[in-house]
Amino acid sequence: MKYFVIGDEDTVLGFSLVGVFGMQATNAEQAKRAWDKALEDPENGIIIITDTVASLIRGTVDRYLFSESFPLVVEIPSPNSKEGRTDLRTLVNQAIGVSL
């Protein structure tokens, strides 16, 4: 099972440091393209997506959050989130359990 991250440039870069492939998205079209790319590989068991990007494709994300069983979707706060700033190291640790 593999992870796939969708988010801003810093988040994708940070997760790549621990071997998690992903795609950057700054608009709905890029977010949808990244989501589809994540679903192409059946080995991607967990999709990590920032809240800002998830809001761009909320209907798609919610369908997997609430009705689909696979892949697991983990929504994390983005660096620009209004819910408070969490450092990238903490986000990686919480999302995939890898301590940096």
Largest sheet: 4 strands, parallel
Strand residues, percent: 15-25%
Average predicted confidence as pLDDT? 86
**CATH homology superfamily name:** ATPase, V1 complex, subunit F
Second rung of CATH, namely the architecture: 3-Layer(aba) Sandwich
Radius of gyration: 12 Å
Notes on the protein architecture:
It is a single chain. With 100 residues, this protein is of the alpha/beta class. The protein has a single domain, classed as ATPase, V1 complex, subunit F (Rossmann fold). The chain has 5 helices and 4 strands; from the N terminus they run βαβαβααβα. The protein has helices spanning 9-16, 28-40, 51-56, 58-66, 88-96; strands spanning 2-7, 21-24, 44-50, 72-76. The radius of gyration is 12 Å and the shape is globular. The model has no long low-confidence stretch (mean pLDDT 86).
Concise account of the structure shown:
This protein is α/β, with parallel strands linked by helices and 100 residues long.
List strands and helices in order, with pairings:
Layout lengths: L1 E6 L1 H8 L4 E4 L3 H13 L3 E7 H6 L1 H9 L5 E5 L11 H9 L4
Q: Which features does this protein show?
A:
globular; alpha/beta; Rossmann fold; 5 helices; 100 residues; 4 strands
